[in-house]
Amino acid sequence: MQFIPADQALPAGALELANTEDVMALGGRLAGVAVVALRFPKWTDGRAYSQAVLLRSRLRYAGEIRATGEVLADMLPLLRRCGFDAVQLRADQRLESAQRALGFFDGHYQTAAQLGRTAAHRPQAGA
Predict the structure, then answer these.
(1) Is the pTM higher than 0.85?
(2) How far apart are CA 54 and CA 106, in angstroms?
(3) In this predicted model, what pLDDT tens digit does every residue of 95-110 receive, in sequence order?
């Protein structure tokens, strides 16, 4: 997970989407876009999680998906699982807390946008 300073502007050519936009309607607008920024207007509004999953799973977007807005450290494990690979934390959030949050869960039983083997598919110790 890449941590971007909260006050850093988006790179030129980035596509910034409100969480109310239908990502499935983007079509060719994603071609050549290196960064898609998905905004969390409130930390309790999770629609940007769904947008990220659709970008990765259905649209096969391989560029950077960045979480912006009201992004809290506690959100990091789910952000990574949904396909985000960069975040701009809310200004009052500590980088150390966010980095620690990424280690909260080392395995999951459900598949997700973040590809890899789930805990259910990994060899068990002693087996």
Answers:
(1) no
(2) 23
(3) 888 888 877 666 555 5
